[in-house]
Design brief:
mainly alpha, single chain, about 425 residues, about 65% helix
Length: about 425
Amino acid sequence: MTVRTRPLPALAELPRPARGTAERAAVLAAAGAMVFQPILRPAGPGNSSPVDLFTAATVVFVGLWAATSGRKLGAPYLLSFGLLIVAGGIAGVAGPLPRTSLLEVFQDLVLLAWAVALYNIARRPGVLGVLTATFAYSSIVWATVLVVASLAHITPLEGISATEGNRLLFTLGDPNYASAYWVVSLLVVFAAKRPRHWAVRWFGYAMLVWAIVLSESNGGVLELCIGLGFLALVACYRRRGLVGALALAVSLAALVGLGLRLVPFSQVQTWALQSGQSYLVNSLGRSNGSSSQRALLIQESMGLYHSDGVLGSGPRTTKQLLIDRSYPYAKEAHDDYLAALTERGVAGAAGMVLLVLVAAWRASRALRAPPGAGFAAEVARPAGLVAALLAMAVAGTYYQVLHFRFVWILLVFVAVLASRPDADQPAPGRGSR
């Protein structure tokens, strides 16, 4: 019995967006959003930022394109993220801080609309390649600007905050957000293989690593190690098979274990704290305090969950409730998975689990895509995008990354890579505009 499969359409043969159309405007707006991802200051009302001008433009132009062309829009994470939104809305209305929670739910809806718009425009012929390359080139430029600003002591560009000491934030406003952006950017550069010339690309890697160092973030270093380790395992699997990949994983684990046994991490922390070097003092030197604070925050958050019940206390309420109820350490949840449970209840936790499973399934499809076929023809190394997504999934255990705009860019790019190109067939009698 012969099973016939529908061949993948050749992306190069499909029509490109014409100038002066809503589709072309949507592509340009999406590319602008890639460029301005780190431009979050000055901040506007409702946690908005300058980059959101391009985010909103992408949503508007994709909506116009779909309305005038008769094109149906796909929404790859609608069920899972929708469940998180519904759970957040219910918890917010029933919770003690409804205004705070409903504002967060509104931001969730905007983020979902942005993801849907980006997904559909990125599936157009050649657009995924344009967006990944734009992200890669622009991030190198921004990292270089930050490095030059640090060497020349240009304070407005360094982004130094009184609350964060001498950690350089650029225009990202938060050291963890900044380090996560630089890590993701480095892995996108690897995935897109842009710039094309290896020497320029390695210069970009150096600038991005330097930017990570300037953020003085332990989390950023961990995320980079996770991403690079995953890429090493993928490369080993493709060359040596499953046995080779498992052997490498065991070897790396054994090496780390042996190193920690010979030189205990507490000794490394003490050495860093006493080194007199600001980077070591503010990164490794403070790691013990950061760990204890996060452990206390987890304990306090679970206390809130037991107090407020299975519906949750409402999105973005953790810090204010900890303050109102006189807890000793009042901060946001700093953990996407814990926040889903404590702020959005059991339904929110289910939505988060579903989102992780859907993202993992799509990532596995993206990794298995034949090179040069379908959307994989537009991204030189799809494993780089999956590595970045994995790094952010781990980062979600010690910081709330789900609302980072570039995390949703990764989710969308992986979803596009996991999908099949479709023939461009507008509704009869209506042109693509």
